[in-house]
Design brief:
homodimer; TIM Barrel; Rossmann fold; 3 domains
Chain lengths: 792, 792
């Protein structure tokens, strides 16, 4: 245990004492009482200013300089005087080793200063794992979802949780369950995918795992399900407006919330930045109260997104002052404010005039009570501070690194392979082969893990680049590296003259090697100021109208392809790209590795060499053309029909464009061949409810071990309102050795087959279609019909 | 009067008699009674089958072969047995001269056959005017709106009305008041523009003019306001789903309906194809009853779009059979079915079982009553059949042609002119000049007036192409024409080899002439089968993901520009195009002539030569990049903010893209220079209400006469829900001679400044911003602030 000063010493003594005894004469210190009882008691003892203080926090306690944390005492004290509920670590390129002692110090000091002994709770995002440097750098959310491996994801979530715990983080601002609706949104890489069922499955496991209770009965890490409710704003812009419609909200966007609330009870929820039908979520009483509290049954804390309350006044202009914004947000149901820098808006409620307003008092009381419950539930009043020793033993331990390797291996998605892969070691490089590999492109020698990854893409401490993994595996002499374009942050407006030479060098490298692996992508870096600029692409704050590769990357690819060199294209980004016909046909193999974390390079090289058989599947459809969206496999029936030409001519006028392009949701290739046979559907009774049972025999008909994802989709033949042409309802990832078969059975309670109509759950009876197969593409599916009679 | 057979003779005799006497013992024949009273009486006399028959009609009475109408007696009789409320002319490339006698014959025969003497009413679209060949070919809707000249548009609408009357058309399926929301929608050329106020102004004048009463008190032509409610379906696809949200519906899409219903009372309304929030409009009781009948107060007939009821079963699958679809549509409030070919779905209601269902009977009765009211109101029971003599004297009379020339001249929008224009006659061709003009491009020698234009683009009988107008004006020897690409319907997939030669020829022509006018566009032809194919672009049934010029037109343009020849780019289409930086900077002048009808060529040539000073303004914003949409000047405040880079970097990540691109709503250039000065705003009392009065002095500071559009925009500073950054609220087109000034005053009642919040009209009090100027661009506007106090 780290002891920094007298205050901390006192704290530690107190805490240990509390943990040992159970009853206390002061109810809020009595650990035998429930969090709700303790919160109610404590609330009754608090002054108005103490209450308002709990509505916000000090999210960025530290700064950074020269790779080390800095601390500004004046700023800190100014902030915590008025907002002191939670605290955050701040800049993510600071290192855990440096931060923990400093944070322990601040926490102890603050507790000592607190009249009633109310501790901070540390809050942090947790996307790729720990939100400061020094933890295991897991893949981004869309990468992990591409594994379609829920049990493995649970283990990864446990590792992420334990690394947070080791840093004293007991509240994460994750998971992000926004359903991808617009390929232009720069945050899609933070999301699981385009399907609400798949998102709900992953998110629920994340929440359950994070919120697991320890031996004291304390929730390990409280989670925040977010952003209620979002999927893509106007133009693909993060904070832009969204359309409304209660059926759309409940059926397209809310299912992950519904599932998570019912099955995993996330302790908090973050309202989205967007306005829905003109009403920003921060003041959207209808969606926060009627829908979220009412229809969806959420009982936890509702918090704001960063600065969202301020934006009511400064951006959407639905409040005429900071104070007006605070009062409106409180009245709508926001209970806690996330305000990264400076004075939060809820702080204005300290004005004594508000203590005289019963409505405001009641809302503040309820907000503080809900927040204190989280602190009691997570044991913040009793837990000892984390020790540096425990932190060192936890972060990046062997088990975590192994889990990271495993999920990265399963998250790479192979989209094309004409037989070029796997590469034969004996034909290349150090193993005695004669050839070399040209490793090309601006994303070949960096770590591109997303803007919630606490990693500098150019800093080798965060993992191997693809180039380095190749060099380690095959020897430096077997690899010819060329960046191919002049900048990592490609400029759209530049005349590209500097690139001409770089492209020419890349082509020469490809010709000399005889084989090219070209890594293209988008996005670079995280929230650190050094990565923020006008050339940035993808990631939060940057929507992209153009779905091609930014800058001159396509020209680089075309030049290599024009040279006739066998080429493997690797995409490394949180977004989908438009692959033109020439790219699709001329690249010999294509991968999307998304934002795969520190083992991107290792896992890709293992896969290209055949040591690992790829098993990732797309969780989002790749559009065929700029502007040719939305594309998602679960479009509505009327979205894919019409027109006066042939059926093919419709959708968008270019004949080869379709609403269901070939690189579709659920699609991904393997080195082995799977077949499915003897698909059956039946209606069965299980306890008190009916289930649809679908089974199919999966066979590995190829020569190597591999994993396949058996996917089950459905739709009622006729519906009350429009229903997607098909919806995913179950999936299972199955490993089979060559020649082996397995009967895979998937069961779905009939009650799950419904959908909301004007806020009421509706289940259609009659004919249903079920499809089972290896992707959402018609050619990969077997259709099964079943009639579901009314049980009324 | 045309008399074809005995039946018609009888009819004519009867009709004349009816017109002369006023009272009749049979109430429904008594012209002194109101249409409602007569309809009620007639309804009471009708059998169930007669009633159901009125729910549909024979929309395509004729076919076409060799340019002449054909008639299939069997098909006709089969149809009219079960659906006989209205009749349509059918194929629009048949000619009025041929059609009128045939139609008169059918009408007379049908009336003679009718037990109760219930006549047909002829229904037709009326976009470019008459919906068969032989009338004046006016510009498409977006062209006429680009004139911003409401008084002139009223005169055009009167001419269109009179040509319809001359053909016996007393019910038009226009105006289309859909507010343009998505640049990919192939029907945008049928719409007025992106602004709901402007759409409402034009539409209301169309309706008032069409529905003017004649000397007998009869409505001349009943109108159909459509499509309730639409603006752009998913992906820009016409029949695809739309999002919901009552604020969006009422504030963004419904204003033209609200204005038209209050001020012009259109007699019918067409429900849109789309589903809104999952519920197709054809069964959307909430929108048709609560919103349309309730909030918006519509009292006329609600009809289906073509085949829309069938699509409930075959496409959106919210009905399990044709009959189910018919019953659901009827129950939701559809009262009349548009079913172009074959047996309509409402015909299934003939089954006697429905006569035993009081709910169905009541709905059918109300539907028939509403429809008969239109027939009585338009005088269908009394009017004589139109004579061929009158038709010949009306169609294409001098006044109509002059109006057409005038509105075409005002509808051309000049987007760039670096001083090249106007061209000096003395420098070109036949006038004694030495130079020539190369007239280039696949749209230079056709008439491209939209798919509701009854015109074959290649048939010279429908007007001059741009090439022909040039040749007539300057002499054949002054013009070098080259098509430049091999097809009118450019192929996206073709390798373009055939075009290489054509492009080279065009470049040679440009070089030889020394000046190029290059005409690019999209769309070709109308609903005639010969124009329906997979290569078609734009127009109904064809959305376009790509907003560039279809086919190899951009390559043609680039090749001409590369050759260094001074070039005028002319766009001829119903859509916006993305003009890349190179096009914008290298073209010396740019026009969008939209779908300007038979005088496209004449008006353009007059304008290029300076005989006419252009005065058109965009009614829809031109996006800057594929995928860089929505773009409209009236975006919501939160749609244009955010991001971590500079403000410029936001929206979409390419630095030069913005939500408010320079070729914006309201923008258009003139050959003269207008200035506005001394702008003032004040709050005044007018009778019983307060008005905001804005005045500004407009001065023609240039050397030639010209017209400028004074535009007034506003927004409350703070609003209850999100409100656009600015909204158009008044405009006036003003003509000034050089050096002249005029004080232009625009008044807006305060009650008009509100918007709907959850279905309630809301007016914010407090600070307001008004902007007056020549376009929606900030640099063209003067800001005026005014405070509107609460009058409560």
């Amino acid at each position: 245990m780290v002891v920094i000063n007298r205050a901390a010493l006192l704290l530690v003594a107190n805490v240990v004492a509390v943990v040992c005894r159970r009853h206390d004469a002061t109810p809020y210190l009595d650990t035998t009482l429930s969090p709700a009882e303790r919160a109610t008691d404590l609330l009754g003892r608090m002054t108005w200013e103490e209450k308002v203080g709990q509505l916000g926090g000090v999210r960025r306690a530290f700064g950074t300089a020269g790779g080390k944390p800095t601390f500004n005492r004046t700023t800190y004290e100014t902030t915590r005087t008025t907002q002191n509920g939670q605290i955050g670590y701040g800049p993510q390129l600071n290192w855990a080793n440096d931060l923990l002692p400093l944070m322990n110090n601040l926490r102890a000091e603050h507790l000592n200063d607190s009249r009633l002994g109310i501790p901070y709770i540390i809050v942090a995002d947790s996307v790729n794992g720990l939100w400061v440097s020094g933890g295991t750098l897991f893949p981004g959310t869309i990468s992990m979802a591409s594994s379609w491996n829920l049990p493995l994801y649970e283990q990864v979530a446990a590792a992420m949780r334990d690394e947070n715990l080791a840093m004293g983080v007991h509240w994460v601002l994750s998971p992000e369950v926004d359903v991808i609706q617009d390929p232009r949104n720069g945050r899609n890489g933070e999301m699981y995918g385009e399907d609400s069922y798949l998102v709900g499955e992953f998110a629920t496991r994340y929440i359950k795992t994070m919120q697991e209770r320890d031996e004291n009965g304390w929730v390990k890490v409280a989670t925040t399900i977010k952003h209620f409710v979002f999927g893509g704003g106007s133009g693909g812009v993060n904070r832009a407006s969204m359309f409304g419609g209660i059926n759309h909200i409940l059926n397209d966007l809310a299912p992950p919330y519904r599932k998570a609330i019912e099955e995993a009870r996330p302790l908090s929820l973050m309202a989205s930045y967007s306005s829905v039908d003109g009403v920003p979520l921060s003041i959207n009483r209808h969606l926060l109260q009627d829908v979220l509290r009412g229809t969806l049954g959420f009982e936890g804390l509702i918090m704001s997104d960063a600065n969202a309350i301020e934006y009511l006044f400064t951006e959407s202009k639905v409040a005429s002052s900071r104070e007006d914004a605070a009062v409106k947000a409180l009245a709508a149901g926001l209970e806690h404010e996330l305000h990264p820098g400076g004075r939060g808006l809820f702080s204005d409620l300290r004005d004594p005039k508000y203590e005289a307003e019963p409505d405001v008092v009641s809302l503040v009381d309820e907000s503080v009570r809900a927040f204190l419950e989280i602190k009691f539930a997570t044991g913040m009043f009793e837990r000892p501070l984390p020790s540096v020793e425990s932190m060192k033993a936890t972060l990046r331990n062997e088990r975590h690194l192994e889990l990271n390797r495993n999920i990265t291996r399963e998250s790479l998605v192979m989209l094309k392979n004409d037989g070029l892969l796997p590469l034969d070691r004996d034909e290349i490089g150090a193993g005695g082969g004669r050839g070399k590999i040209a490793v090309l492109g601006p994303y070949a020698d960096i770590i591109n893990a997303g803007n919630y990854a606490p990693a500098d893409p150019l800093d080798r401490r965060y993992g191997n680049s693809i180039r380095l993994s190749f060099e380690k595996e095959l020897g430096v002499d077997s690899i010819i590296y060329a960046q191919g374009t002049s900048t990592i942050l490609p400029s759209y407006v530049g005349d590209g003259s500097a690139d001409e030479q770089a492209i020419a060098e890349a082509v020469e490298a490809a010709k000399a090697a005889g084989l090219a692996v070209i890594v293209l992508g988008s996005g670079f870096g995280n929230f650190d100021q050094k990565f923020i600029n006008n050339e940035r692409t993808d990631t939060e704050g940057y929507a992209h109208a153009d779905l091609g590769f930014p800058g001159r990357q396509q020209q680089l690819l075309d030049a290599v392809l024009d040279a006739g060199v066998p080429t493997v294209l690797v995409m490394n980004a949180g977004q989908v790209f438009v692959l033109d016909n020439s790219t699709m046909s001329r690249c010999r193999a294509i991968f999307h590795v998304w934002l795969a974390g520190e083992y991107t390079g290792d896992a890709l090289v293992e896969t290209l060499l055949g040591d690992i058989n790829p098993s990732g599947k797309l969780t989002v459809t790749m559009p065929q053309h700029n502007g040719a969206f939305p594309v998602a496999y679960d479009l509505l029936p009327s979205d894919g029909v019409g027109g006066f030409g042939s059926a093919l001519a419709y959708d968008w006028h270019w004949p080869q464009l379709t609403r269901k392009p070939p690189l579709a949701f659920g699609f991904g290739l393997s080195y082995t061949t799977f077949s499915m046979s003897d698909a059956e559907v039946s209606l069965r009774k299980r306890q008190n409810h009916k289930v649809v049972s679908v089974s199919v025999t999966l066979t590995n008909a190829g020569n190597i071990v591999g994993k396949e994802v058996v996917q089950l989709y459905y739709r009622p033949r006729y519906t009350t309102i429009e229903f997607p042409v098909m919806k995913l309802i179950r999936f299972a990832k199955v490993e089979l050795t060559p020649g082996d078969s397995k009967r895979v059975a998937l069961e779905v309670p009939v009650r799950e087959l419904g959908y909301f109509v004007d806020g009421q759950w509706n289940i259609d009876h009659g004919e249903y279609s079920f499809w089972v197969g290896s992707s959402s593409r018609e050619e990969d599916l077997t259709l099964l019909n079943v009639t579901i009679p009314s049980f009324g």
